[in-house]
Amino acid sequence: MRALRHLNKYFRKYKSRLIIGLIITIIARIFAIAVPKFIGDSVDVVDLYLKNEVQNLELVKDELIMNILLILGSVLIAAFFTFLMRQTFIVVSRHIEYDLKNEVYRHYERLSLNFYKKNRTGDLMNRISEDVGKVRMYVGPAIMYSVNTVTLFVVVIGYMASIAPELTLYTVAPLPILSLSIYKLSVAIHKRSTIVQQYLSKLTTFTQESFSGITVIKAYGIEAQTQDNFTELSDQNKDKNIDLAKVQALFFPLMVLLIGFSNLIVIYIGGRQYIDGTITELGVIVEFIIFVNMLTWPVATVGWVTSIVQQAEASQVRINEFLSQEPEIVNHVKHTTPIHGNIVFDNVTFTYDDTNITALKGINLNVKRGETLAIIGKTGSGKSTILDLIGRLYDVSTGEIRIDNKKIDQLNLTDLRENIGYVPQDAFLFSDSIKNNISFGKEDASQEEIEAAARKAVVHSNITNFSKGYETVLGERGITLSGGQKQRVSIARAIIKDPAILLFDDCLSAVDTETEEQILSNLNKITKNKTTFIVSHRISTVKNADQIIVLDEGKIIQQGSHNQLLNTDGYYKKLYLKQLSEKEI
Length: 585
Ligand SMILES: Nc1ncnc2c1ncn2[C@@H]1O[C@H](COP(=O)(O)OP(=O)(O)OP(=O)(O)O)[C@@H](O)[C@H]1O
What we know:
alpha/beta, Rossmann fold, binds adenosine-5'-triphosphate, ATP-binding cassette subfamily B protein, 64% helix, transmembrane helix
């Protein structure tokens, strides 16, 4: 129960509603037990009349009508309060579920990229949906049924013991067996449903991947093979579901069996006691039979609730495991720090701690506001890593990065990121309209601003060619756009922010050289008072930059302007000549 203590703050938050729920439950139960009492009384009146102890039939009829009205009234009141009980407890549980989901989501967002690399997306999603759902079963149904059971027990058994103590003892004796059996069964059900969940998530992941990669599947003609794999997974899934159904099927028969057993005891022992005179009223037996049936479900829920609490505990442990993770990148500065964009790398070395790859080794750079630095180099040489460090997606291992003469970790992280327009290598577009995908960089952007940004990124005419223009909704990962169009929408998204620092990570690779030239000439105007880092494999993209660096295995092997580098033998010149011969320049 340790992990579940995390929820106490929510119980405190909804304290008053829970107390009201408790009072409502007690009232509902009191009215519920009135029903068997009135039935018992009715049987007694009829019994007395049959034994000739009461002769006036009218009196008997009046008493019966009165009892019927009382039963009706009690049932209605009990039903109304039971409805209110569910409304309070279940509604509170939905509020707590909502609060907890938001808490987990907020925390996820604070965590650094490393966290996302170490944990699978499916796992993150499971904890926020399925695990929170299981915890809700504890804060909702489990608490509601526990309160219900305890109040019913105190009220009903107290009343039963007051009218026939010995019979009460015999009647409740089999109930712990019922509770224990239901508990065992619930544990077995839980085990099997966990397995079912695992198989279901395998099947979901497989289906999701095959639909995302449908182009590859069709291009390679492997539909039949994919179908076989799906059928196999589906088969396993079905078998596990059947295993689960087998134990679930035992639940109600087991309950009915044990209720039947308790009823037999009441009839047998109660009958004997009535015959030998220990019990004087026949109605008591009738009342007891109704009480046994009333107690059965709450007793069964003791076992069920125990298993719910165990599952919730396990889920909360998993949730707490993530909640207790501290973000590696911490915002040390709470006050705002304006960003102008003078960037210095001072002997920066960076090692990815999961792969242990030292992606950057002793990098020194000095880029002033208004300047453009281009980075070129073989794949895996550390180009993207430089951009990631500027956005403080990771902290440097040794050396330091300074922006406007301040160490990067002495800047307000939100200010830093708000002042960066980043265009990643793999343009990611959300399943939303093109308009919203662009204005993502500036939420309050007007249509004119959006169009202006799209014009600068040379994608406006493509967008207006779509029948719905800027309202065109993009499919998953923007599949309705070509690679080059996606890149340009992504550039527009960065431009619209009008940030102090622009980071372009090989984002013109899918654009033809003519369009590239137009974009670069537009960027030239935009970046006049900004600091720009541009990563590329093409000389045509980097040639106009103020500084160009060539990276190789994390080290700067060449540095200078286009002309300076052309006059030096090395990687840059070789690449230039090669691309020139390919007529790329
Ligand atoms: N998130 C990461 N976790 C661990 N290692 C990484 C990560 N990203 C990159 N690396 C490794 O760091 C090195 C530099 O990668 P980086 O992405 O900076 O290269 P790059 O020059 O941008 O390559 P490309 O031109 O192919 O984009 C590579 O060896 C890569 O495998």
